[in-house]
Amino acid sequence: MRNNRQHFYWSSIILAFVFAGAGCVKSTSNSVNTSAVCYVSILNEAPYGPSVDMYFNGTLVSVAAIAPGNYSSEYGSVKPGNYTVDFKVTGTDSLLCEIPAAEYDTSAFYTLIIYNTAPKSPAVAAARIVDDYSSVTQTTSAYYRFFNLSPDAPGVDLYLNSTVAQTNRSPMDNLTNLSYDEFQPINPGTFSVNVKKASTDTVLASISTTELMPSTVYTIFLYGTSSNLAVNVLTATY
Fold this sequence. Notes:
Elements: H1 10-13, E1 18-19, E2 38-45, E3 52-56, E4 59-60, E5 76-78, E6 81-89, E7 95-104, E8 109-116, E9 124-131, E10 142-148, E11 156-160, E12 163-169, E13 184-186, E14 189-197, E15 203-212, E16 217-225, E17 228-235
């Protein structure tokens, strides 16, 4: 991880349902664990929201508050099953948001995202993203996807070096355009990552140097508020 953001490991956040993860890079060279587990990661990218506790089917599974800006640095392995995921204000029984009951399948991958629903608003929602690695087939390619997770950035373009890779991305637009959840191939290399205001040269957030390795998968995401926007590159590991 080439940043100093707050992150947590599943061993310190989960009490129940989770087994020890393999801790390996998610890439085409890795065989999927065929034991009865699925894989889940969490990003709390609701900067105007409170810290939360997480519940699976009514059972508290977080042993520490998940504060805005916290994310899991790797997938945790979870017992397959049908779960309703509730997020409550830390230390209370106040339901903040909920991911409705859904099946979590054996050896599948999911990302849970907490987000603000409008600019500078405390309103919070949560969503489940199905992470489909079936397109990750070329060991000579790196793979990436891009999420706009800032409620204050209504339209942005993603540049990798001087090449525009994504255009006019709005906050959480991957919920309505599922193609944005898919991983895109790219030639491996060292890149500058710049997020610009859509159709302009105004840089909102950047990383000067990041390496995208072959046979490795990345989620690039914009986060934060209008006064403190930043971009992160998260390697898929489990």
